[in-house]
Amino acid sequence: METYLDKKKPEMIELLELLVNIDSGSYDKEGVDVIGTILKESFEKAGMHVKVHREKELGNHLEIKASEESEPKIIIIAHMDTVFPKGEAKERPFKIIGERAFGPGVNDEKASHVQVLYALKALKASGSEAYKNVHVIFNSDEEVGSPSSKSLIKQAAENKDYSLVVECARPNGGIVTERKGVGNFSLSVKGKSAHAGVEPQRGKSAIEEISHKILQLQQLNQYEEGLSVNVGLVNGGTSSNTVPPNAEAEIDVRIKGEEQAAEVTKEISKIAQEEYVAGTTTELKGSISRPPMVKTEATEELVKVIQEAGDELGMSIQQLSTGGGSDASFTAVEGIPTVDGMGPMGEFSHSETDEYTDLKTFPQHTALLAKTIEKLSK
Asked: Is 33 designated active site?
């Protein structure tokens, strides 16, 4: 497989360039669907069956198996959407500097699309039947919490023995065995406007009210326990000489343990219900959208298989935890041994300038995915 993939490297890079040069932000349905069409045609050409799950607002999702009737035991998850706005690909198209490929979404995670395709092609080319044991989900909305694909992932995960998620591998060869859960909340405060110079006493400051709440929210942080609450966006007011009648805040929550979800949600709700400035009202929206990905004994056994595959390729595979969220949480919470970071090696996802994929190791990490599938299928 290694020889096959080394020979196919120019093809892999060519497809990667095509994908990177197409905008596919989460809310750019047209762009995401172009990516989906290219991938559908590529996998069908490789002899796989592709089902398109159509969506009205967000991009369509792809479900890929060897045949419609097959019942594979390994689920592989990747996402087609990026965090970048329309026009980003034209402003800074795909380019190669040395052994690194740059461009919007190259690492997060268009290189993974190519990797999955060529891992399956490599298995077929080697005569292995293991490609029949794979159920691939390409979703379109991971960067915004997977609202329309969560149910598809959970359905596809039923009766699976293993889950391999192809977010990027870390520069030290690291794969991810633990991730924090993620929550997104928003506060909307309504007050009453008034002229700040003539009759300020008639006003009810929404900004003053939300400021009290922000200070209370920041007190919820328990970094040592793996709990973080961050008010990252604040908006409010109409002009500097008007008592502000409105204010909004966006809150990011990360949890290490599932038991923290209910407790932190309860505390945020309590803060939202408190009235610091009489006459204001507050609306709270949001929830913990992704559970934490917790490492288990079964995960450790899966890691051993991946490390064995790595040893055969001369790779040293390390495991690590991260505070970032991914769709790996949806399979992990179902009790399926799950490992993330099985994608190509790269860094600086979401960066407007530095995001890259390491082309030198591109075939090797593709071979690692293929060998892992093969070992898990025996």
From this structure: no
